Every structure is written in structure tokens, then in C-alpha cells.
Amino acid sequence: MMSHIAPPTEPRNPFVMAQQQFDLAADLLELPNSIRRRLRVPRRELKVAVPVRMDDGEVMVYEGYRVQHSLARGPAKGGIRYHPDVDIDTVRALAMWMSWKCALVNIPFGGSKGGVAVDPRGLSLGELERLTRRYAAEISIIIGPESDIPAPDMNTNAQTMAWMMDTLSIHRGHTVRAAVTGKPLHIGGSEGRVEATARGLIYVLHESLKLLELSPPATRVAIQGFGNVGGNAARMLHNDGLPIVAVSDMYGGLYHPRGLDIAAVQVHVQRTGSVIGYREAEPISNAELLELPCEVLIPAALGNQITSENAHRIHARILAEGANGPTTPEADAILQEQGTFVIPDVLGNAGGVIVSYFEWVQGLQEYFWSEQEVNTNLERIIVKAFHDVMRVVAEQQHYARTAAYLLAVRRVADAAETRGVYP
Ligand code: GLU
Questions:
Q1: Residue 309 domain-assigned?
Q2: How far away, in angstroms, is 348 Cα from ligand 1 center?
Q3: Measured distance CA(127)–CA(66) in Å, rounded
Q4: Domain limits for position 232
Q5: Is residue 392 part of a domain?
């Protein structure tokens, strides 16, 4: 991946970054210190050691976390990430961002996140299942449909969620469907959940194109990341007639100034496991991808990609954040200055948790919706949130991330304030 020498002033700790973003909103909202102190830190943090019997008989121990940032608006909600970079501060930041995301799109959840510090590529399927089941058992003391509901995130998927749901259910003695979202369809998952994050991003992107009067065929798109968000977004936008000029994965990227044949790239990825080596394009690095000439840039991989070092070289008119935390506060200042139209992560990637909400509701009611119903409701909720943010941008001249935070933090603060401090 990209490597940078960070200037000393720029925080690369995601939690420091998340707190900076919160402080900015709290200042503008003139939040009283009593509320500010509560929302600045996570409500609960659980750190677990996860022993796993490996295929060769050795027992390895991995570090796992589940952090609940806020429960003021409802049960905590957030994904589970498997990645070597997972640490307590990353999970704290991701949990806080979930609180703002759920509040911004106005679904009745607080925010949480979990993760295990592991590179899942080094594990067999059996090892991955044992890791997931033990991690699920360890965090089960704070998980449940009324308390905290996990979902997929980076390097976890519907199978991971099936193992988690099954493990929690075995411990409780009966199936607890609504304790986990992002499950496979035939065990209580929701239609449209897999594509939901990409689909949500595309709904708000199309609204942005209308606002900026950009026509789809003239809108070149560069996408960093080719996983659940980046890969699905590439396919859907390609089908909508936008030229996808670049895509990448953790190994590197591809560039074609007139647009890639996404179906062909997908076939190549299925065959080789990476976009690398696809012949009908120029190979580029992940760092180069961000700076390409294009109208739309979609970071859909790791955080901390757009920094004070490269922000001024971002040519895209629209930055549509599929990843969580791809842009540092220092980069935000530069993007604001140069007038980049930013769709912030808490809005851009909220489609996933919106359909998770639908899955939770369907699981509790044991009554399941059609894909059409899911997508129509997703569009309604995310497009409303987009226009709510745009209204604050227009009326108060704020940067879009700040506008989104003002709406979201206000809602969480109101809930926390009204509920009061116990005892
Ligand atoms: N991991 C996704 C996110 O960051 C989805 C979370 C969820 O559905 O609970 O928003």
C-alpha cells in the first residue's frame, strides 16, 4: 500500500482524528462541556484474547476488540474488521463514526465497532471459522439484538456473520437472528444487503451529479479498493454509463483514460485474486490513482489515504468516500480551500448500515421484504440525508463533513442530554 512520511503536525491516529472532527462540531454547536465530555470517549470497551487452534496443532492468540461509543439513540451497531492494523484506537474511531453515521441517516442505533488484529489471508477456512467463533463467544457478553449488533466490515462477509450468529445462538439455546446483520439470505439475511453500501454511495453520487450538472458519460471515475464497496460501485457505475478510468486493490491499480471494461477486470480478479496483471490497462500505484485526472474519486479501501501531502494534487471534482476515515482533518482544510465537493464517509457509506437496520427489523418481525422494497427505502433514507446535509452547506456555508457532523452530533447530544446522567 501507500507509504508516507507524516509531517509531525498531522495525526495519523484515527481516534485522534475522530476526536478532532467531533471537537470542531462540538465547538460550532456550542455543546455544553457536560455532554462534550461524554461523547468524546467510548461508553464501553472490551478487549479479548482469542486463542485459536491452528491446523498444525499450535495454539495462536489474537487480540480482539468490541467498542461501544454511544447507546443514547438505541442499541449499538457496527461492523467487525479483520486486519493486521486493527488496534484499540482504530476501533474507537470506527465506533464513534458509526454513532454519527446512524444519527445522520436517522436510524435508531448507537455506534460500535469490533475487530481482530489478524491477516485473514494467512488463515485456512477452518482456522478462520474457529477464530470467528471464539471471538464471537468472547464478545457475546455485550452482544444481542437489544444491545449491540455486529455486521461485516473489511475482510469479513456473510459467512463470517453466519458463524457469529450460530455461535451466539448456541450459547443462548435458540436462534437469535437479529443479533447480527449481513447474514446470508437463507438464514435471515436481507435482500440487497451485500450491495447496499455501494448502492447507497451511488444514490448520493447521482444526486451530486445532478446538483453539479455533470452528465454520466462525461464523468470519469477512479476507485481505490475493489472489495465489497469498490467492486460493486465499479460495476454499478459502469452499468450506469460512467467511464471507470481506474480501479485498485491492496496490490496496486489499473488505469485506462477512456474507461475499463469492468466485467473483464472482474473475470481477471476471479481468476488471479487481484486486479494486477490485467492487460488492457496501464499499471499504476494506489498513490497515483488518487491523483489521476477524473471527475469522481472514490476511496473505498483503508483510512488515512488523503492527507496534507496529496490533497492539493487531487483533481477530482467530487470526492465520494466509501471507506471509513479516508481523509485527515488537515486534508479536509485543503479540499475545502480548493472547493472539492466532498460526500463524507458518514453519508457516503451509510447504505450498509441502513440495510443492516432493515435486516434487524425483518429479523425481529420474522417478515421479509423484496429487494425492490429494500432498495426503495434505502434510496429514500440516504437521499433525504444527502439533502439535509446540502441544506446546511447552502444555508451556513459549511464544508460538507462539518455539515454532516452538525446534524449527527446534535441528534446524539440531544438524546444523551434528554436521557440525562445516571444516577
Ligand atoms: N461496516 C459497515 C460500516 O462501516 C456496516 C456496519 C453495519 O451494517 O452495522 O458502516
A1: yes
A2: 12
A3: 21
A4: 196-348
A5: no
Residues 79, 177, single domain; the answer is: yes
CATH number of the domain residue 320 falls in: 3.40.50.720
Tens of pLDDT, residue by residue over 339-373, are 999 999 999 999 999 999 999 999 999 999 999 99
Whether 113 is catalytic: yes
| 203 and 132 within one domain | no
Q: Please tell me the distance from the alpha carbon of residue 346 to that of residue 44, in angstroms, as a whole number.
A: 21
Q: Same domain, yes or no, for 172 and 202?
A: no
Predicted TM-score of the model (pTM): 0.97
For residue 149, the ligand 1 atom closest to its alpha carbon is 9
Instruction: Work out the pLDDT band at 11, boundaries 50, 70, 90.
Output: low
Closest residue to atom 9 of ligand 1, CA basis:
78
Q: Which atom of ligand 1 is nearest to the CA of 152?
A: 1
Tally of structural domains, the chain: 2
Asked if residues 368 and 177 have their Cβ atoms less than 8 Å apart, the reply is no
Measured over the CA atoms of residue 247, residue 276, residue 151 and residue 189, the dihedral's sign is positive
Which protein residues touch ligand 1 with a CB less than 6 Å away?
77-79, 151, 153, 181, 324, 349, 352-353, 356
Residue of 113, 183, 210, 384 with catalytic role: 113
C-alpha cell at 317: 471534482
The reply to whether 200 and 344 lie within a common domain is yes
State in Å: Cα 53 to ligand 1 middle.
29
The secondary structure element, H or E, covering residue 358 is helix 351-365
